[in-house]
Structures are given as C-alpha cells and as structure tokens.
Amino acid sequence: INGATIVAQQESFNWVLLNKMGIAFNSHSYSGVFNHPDSMTSDLGYISSISNERGELYTYVIGDKIFIKDGSGFNTYSYVNDTVFGHCMIYANWDYSKTFVFFSSGHPNYPQNKFGYYIINRIGTSRFVLDTMQKFVRIRTHNTYTKGFDIFRTNNNETFLLIGCEENGLLSKLTALPINNSGPDTTAFKDVCKSNLFLNPTSIIKVSNLNQRIAIATNGAAPSSTIHFLDFRPDLLSAHVIFLNTSLSFFNFHTRVQDMEFSPNDSIFYATTINTISASNLCQFKIQSALSGNINLSNSNRFALRPHSAYRSIELANDGKIYVGFLPHVHVFYTQKFYSDSGYIGTISIPDSFGLSSLYEDTTIKTNPFTMQSFGILPEFPSFYKNIPVHNISAAPRCVNSPTRIAHRDTLRTDSIRWNFGDPASGALNSASGNVVYHTYAQSGTYLLTAFLFKGTFTDTQRLSLRIDTLASPFLGNDTALCAGVSMVLRDRNRFPGLPLWSDSSFYDSLPVHRPGTYWYALDNGCGRFYDTLHIDSLLPPSLSLGNDTALCRDTLTLNATWPLSTYFWNTGATDSIIRTAQSGQYRVTVSNPCGVDSGAQRITFFDSLHFSLGSDTAMCIGDRFALLANVPGAQGFLWFNGNTSASALINTPGQYWLRAVNLCGAFTDTLRVDTLHPPRVELGPDTILCKNGLLLLNATQSSPAQYNWHNGSKDPYTFVYDSGRFWVVVNNACGMHSDSI
After folding, report:
1. What is the CATH number of domain 14-387?
2. 259 within 8 A of 326, measured Cβ to Cβ
C-alpha cells in the first residue's frame, strides 16, 4: 500500500497449460511461469492444477502422472493405466494443510466401477508431501460405476464430491461423498438424485457457481448429446431433474458436448461442442429458457462455428471471466485426438451478459506450440473456487434485530481485517475491525458486506451480498379439497423470501398436487425455518337426494343439501345448504362445486290435527233413513260404528252412531245420537166457556221439535185467548202434520 493506492495485489490461482505454459488472471496474460519437468508422451489423460495462497503452483496432473512440489522441485508419481480417459479434479482445504486429487477410470479396457484419490500434506510453506494414494474406491456395490464428478460446498462449510454413478446397469444417479479434513468418508455416501440420468463414462457434471443448479452432459455412441438441468439444494443434498434435452440439435445438426460452464450469477449456460460436419461450436443459452425446454435460436447464441477446429475446455476463473481453450486446424471426427501447432485461449469478459455484450475474444492468448493434447488445455476448478471471497466470509444468523456473527475463515493470509457492514443507517456502528465481529441490522433487505484484508504490504477487498430476513409466516391457504383427476398448485401466499422445502423433499416455489393428503411447506431464511401445513380432502361432484316426497303433521321440516365446498340455490331464493319450512309445496335446490353440478326436489305436505263434528243429536221418523257424511279435511282414513271405512254411512233406525277419522297427527272421534221422531199430535181440549174478561191457555207443545202455526199467526207452541170464538193450530214436523181447533 502506497498511501491509499494499491500497488500490488496477491494472486490466488494460476492455471498451468501443458508443459511450458501459464496464465495469470489479473494480468490477463500468458507466460511461461512454469517449466514442466517431464515431457508429455501420452495423449490419454487430463490436466488439472492448483496454486497455494501465494499463487505458486504446487500440484498438477498431466496425462498419467501427478506432480507435487517439494521445496524447490517437484516429485513425480505415476497413475496406473486404467485411470486414463476419466475425470480429474483437485481440491484443497482453506489452509492448504491437505490437498485432495480425485480421479476416475474411463478406459474401456479397464474396470470403470472405481475412483481413486491422493491426499497431499503440507509441511511448512513450500513442501507438499504425498500422504495417501488410494487408487480404487468402491462405490456402494461391485456393480456401481463412476460416470464423472464435481465438487461443491454447502452454506454450512461442508464439502462433498458429487459423483455420477450407475448401479447394476439400471439406474443412473448422483451420489454425494463427504470430504472432511482427513479425507473422503467412503462410508457415508448420500443419494442426491435417483432419477434416470443416462450417464456414461464420458459424462460431464457441472455444479453452478451459486449452487442452484446442476448440469449434466452425456455423449452417446451416436453423434448426439443429452443434457439434463437439475434444481439443486446443497443444504438438503437433494436435486430434481427439471429439463432433459435429448439429441441436442438446436443448430440443425447433432452435437456432442465437450465441456460446459455456468456464468457467475447462473443466468447463462455455456457449452463447447463438436458436430456432424466436423466443426466445433462455442454456444451460450439463457438458463430460464433452457429450463422450460425451449432452446432455439432466439434464446441461444453461437459465438463461432469453426470447421476442422476444436473448442475444448471452458472454465470460469476466479477473476469472474470465462476462458475457452481453442485449437485451430485440427482433425475432428469424434475422436479424442487433436493436432495443432499452437493453441489459443479465448476470453468471455462479461459472461453474465447474453450475445455480443458478453465481449467474447476468440484469440486473447496464444499458447506455446505443442504436438498433441487430448482432453483440452484448461484445468478444471471445483465450482466454489470461482467465488473464493464469498466462501471465505461467513455471516449468521441473517435475521433482522438479531446480532449477526461475521467472520473470515482465511486467517492464515491476513494480519488484520476491517469491515464495512453496508448499513449507513447504523452510524458509527457501520464498521468494525477483527476476524470475528457482530452487527445488528434494524431493517430487512440486501446489504453489501465488505472485508478489507491486510497482510504485510498486500491488501485484498472481498464482498458478500448479505440478505437480512424477517421472521416469516408462510401461508398455503385454508384446508381444501381436490376433484378426482384434477390437480392444483400450492405456494406460499405470503411470498416470504427464502429457501423453500416441501413435504415431498422438492424445493421449488410451488408444489403441484394431484391427490388428497396432508402437505407441509418449510421456508428457510436467515431467521430460521418456518412451517405451514395444508390438508386436502378428496372432493366429488355433488350427488344430491333430498328424499322422497313426504307428508307430516304440522311442524317444521329441515331440508339438507350439504355437500363439501359447494354453493346452493333454492327455489325459495335461499342460498344456505340447509333450510327449514312449515309450508306445503315442492322444494328444489341446485348444488354446485368445482367438480360439478346437481339438483334435487321434494314435495312436502303438512297435516293439521283433526277436529270435526257429525252434528247435533237428532231424530228420525219411523221408516225413514238418512246418510251421515265424513266431511273431515286432512283426514287420511275413516272408521264408522259399523266397521265401514268409506266417507259416509246410511242410518235407518234410531240409535247412537260414531265416526273415527285419522291422519299423521293422530285420530279423532265424534258421536251422534238419533232418536225416533213421531208425527205431531195436537189436543186443544173440548170446546169450553170462558168468563167475560177471562183468560185461556191453548198449548200445542210437542215432545220433539215441530213447527206451529196458530190462528192469530203465532209460531209459538202455545197461545192465550181472551174472547169468544173458534181458535185453531196446525203443527208439523219431519214426520207429518196435525191440527185441532176449539
């Protein structure tokens, strides 16, 4: 540091290319920074390398040999022949105390059901010594075959080797092998994805830089490739296939993938390919379009098509640029051999951009001449090496109003650290010094956390985009029901940000549901894990029956049309599932729910309690007859004194007669007495003498009802006379008439 000006910056990694070539990322230049101690004699192999914290190369692999620095020189160790045509990757822990070299066999004449690894110990600052050489490790069973691998790290700082493998020749899947400080734990294999992935020994596996996705390319026997994209949750060690593109032919000819890479923010996917016209392609695709299965010329871009040339390795370096190995004037017929006098390294300077804005330069760096090369000219980095600052900084918990512990893992290369929390609202608390510091964020949101690292005369600036979350309350909705053959999509209606997890172990923003059951949703954010549960019943279309037409005694009747999750419309205008009525009539209802519609009807008749009268007691003439009528509204049946059940009864003799009427409300009986009615008989008496001013009572009263008509117009049963004369009366009833005079 010269005042506030950075005059030098430490270099984290160098690439070593073939036997006398190197590239420094910051200077963006090619140089012969390393002299290979052994000439490369085999075209069957691969290249990989790693540098220490000072940018010094200390381990690399070329062909069938591994070279390990011991002081000022390199020791050479030979592979066995059956490791060629396989995969190789180098990984070191953070203090470089141990370095792991993983390789797999891919030669068709040798067993492919093994992979091997070397463990290299660090002694002091410049000595690296081979500790363990495990050439063959069996994965699960004897019939499990290695089909390529990559290395990834979880947010909990756990490291795994992701292995593509085929078990018993049937199911290809991804398996994770944990790597701890002492080496790989070969007793703790964990299945990551059990879907059929069609892997073979030439498969390429690539974990995206943000650990969100996995890409797998498989080259078949024919000139075509299969590409899978998988959504990935490293914290759950779980991945799901979301898109499979068989026969990659989006440029009008079949292609075979040589290598592939994700852009730093995972938005763009790159691939180098060889096609059926003996040419090579460098292509890019928009990830979202690829995930939907819609790869076409509108969402893909081919930087170049070169006949008889080879775009081979493609790698994202820790300077944020993508480098592409290119060999011109080579013989390409789906072989692994390429011949050229020299090679080039192209550069994609802005790989998160699509098309020309990504600034691809085809021949940025020219390499030294060489005679042959097989698997490309760029070594392969584990995915998380490409974003070293992010993985160096840890921050947890990431919750509003809760102290966040912020630390830097790489204490070996730092004398002191100055932090800026990206929270100007906190005033003087916005900065602090130390390897471990604490800061409380008062508001949720995204903050740019910056670490200024100092070591001697060197400085480094590292940044982490830090999202601070709030306590979440996910809500899937109220319990519901599902129609047969119908699906629905569950999602958090509150849309809290975070990492989702569903009860079926998937981790998408939504969950398609096709059957009833209980489903839970978990949301992980910086404040913890939050749940919601939804129960889904099966739902059938309405099948309605109100019942048969009915009659009942005067009361209130309840009509019930209840059906799950339905709406109702009655002919009375009611919209409830249940109605009550006390009126006779026909009732109709229409019931509908998401599964269908049905209707029903019922006629209801209400009856009152019976009460009637046969009339007042009466009398009848001798020899007469008359009918008694059952005039009883609402009656459902009759029973007469003589056992008759009709609506009338014939009477021809005096006596006592009854009728019993019945309905739903019960029975009622009335009785009528019929006496004998005789014809009238009048006797006013003999003629007589009345004293002057005297009074005489004339009485024609009968024992039964009768009508009277006197000489003076009186209608009474009797009358009085005061004068002399003849007086008479006429009496009649239903049985006859009689008169008398005096």
Report:
1. 2.130.10.10
2. no
